[in-house]
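We close this part of the discussion by returning to an individual protein. The sequence in question and its structure tokens are set out directly beneath this paragraph:
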Amino acid sequence: MGDVEFRENRRGVAAMLRTPEMLAAMEHLGELVRIDAERTAAVDTGAYAFGTNHDPGVTGGGFKVDAAIRDGKASVIVSNDVRSVPSANHPTGYPYGVAQEFGNEHVEARRTLGNALDALSTHI
């Protein structure tokens, strides 16, 4: 096979990164991460994985996927907005995701989202 010459077209690549198809692909990948995170999340009450309907006083709705064009390219953010019941130390509630990902004095770090993102390489 003969040599193939590649000429980079930065405008073309930039335009491709803003297309609806690229945004849909990023959203799909985010959904795979969300599904894996929900599947592997620690479940004592179910609040971290699935949100407030499982734990009275807890706010937030579990894992979220937010695909959008940011800084000129399609991107996706997978997050968890569940917070504990407000307390003296945390008047707006403690973010469960911080404890689950990084650990604290009460919870061992589980890296739920980090591991789900790492596992994504098996899907692509």
About this structure: The mean pLDDT is 85.
